[in-house]
Design brief:
This protein is mainly α. It is built from five helices and two strands, in the order αααββαα. Helix 3 runs parallel beside helix 5 (127-164). The chain is elongated.
Length: 165
């Protein structure tokens, strides 16, 4: 197989995986909204995702520091959409994440953005480097979003404790 065919295969395969992850996230988010939130539920997803950084052990995934900074900054900018739609409420002495109707559209919008960026960037850098950059983009986005959620959750928890004293 030629290099171009292999690149196209990896582009399509990674896009299918990203679409599957997006749909999975939508269902997980809807299910999570039915149970009270907790610090553990907010912190664990980025910790679990951080194991993906082991990809950088392999040379084909390693990228320049400028690319790291670029990917993380884009991730932080993309997290703004998730931060704006993540709200909590107090119900029955517990804190719940309010499911946002726009969350589904934001996730699909981010998926489309990711595919477009991958098509643009993928032609100039290798598949491994592209994968590394998109991992860092997603990680930067999720960490920023979850830190914001944690802050909002702790503020509500403080309010709840004051109200119960």
């Amino acid at each position: 197989m030629t290099k171009r065919v292999m690149n196209m295969f990896w582009l399509v395969a990674s896009t299918v995986v990203a679409a599957f992850m997006t749909v999975t996230m939508i269902f997980v988010r809807l299910r999570v909204a039915k149970k009270p939130a907790s610090v553990k539920k907010i912190i664990l997803p980025p910790l679990f995702m951080s194991t993906g950084a082991l990809m950088f052990i392999f040379p084909e995934f390693q990228i320049q520091w400028f690319q790291v900074l670029e990917a993380v900054c884009v991730g932080i900018i993309c997290s703004i959409f998730l931060i704006k739609t993540s709200k909590f409420e107090i119900r029955d002495e517990d804190i719940y994440l309010i499911p946002s109707k726009s969350f589904v559209f934001i996730l699909f919008g981010l998926l489309i953005f990711r595919i477009c960026m991958k098509l643009l960037i993928g032609s100039t850098i290798s598949v491994g480097e592209t994968s590394g950059m998109f991992f860092l983009l997603a990680f930067g986005m999720i960490v920023t979003w979850r830190l914001s959620m944690l802050y909002k959750y702790l503020q509500l928890e403080k309010t709840l404790k004051v109200a119960n004293s």
